Amino acid sequence: xxxxxxxxxxxxxxxxxxxxxxxxxxxxxxxxxxxxxxxxxxxxxxxxxxxxxxxxxxxxxxxxxxxxxxxxxxxxxxxxxxxxxxxxxxxxxxxxxxxxxxxxxxxxxxxxxxxxxxxxxxxxxxxx
Length: 128
Fold this sequence. Notes:
Elements: E1 42-44, E2 54-55, H1 57-64, E3 77-79, E4 84-86, E5 92-94, H2 112-120
């Protein structure tokens, strides 16, 4: 029996708009490494959408070589670079899709409702 590998869903999928009022993620909001879903994801900084990858906190921490052991429920962890808490994991930023699910908000452009949606999601996927 040949085991089929999972395929990475598209980064955006306008056929599944996002409702910031609900604690639900669209089906394409999946970690591109471990396929974790229904949790906070991070995206690469300054990367074209066509080359974008979404990662859960564990995979982003591993790729960026950042210790995420103190990450909290809001997605904040200690950063030695800034000397305080941040929601960035190395060069990965919170991945907040637009309501139309056709792109991701720029880091400083996310509307309040989008920030709250992302914060309400579980920070870490369940253990494998």
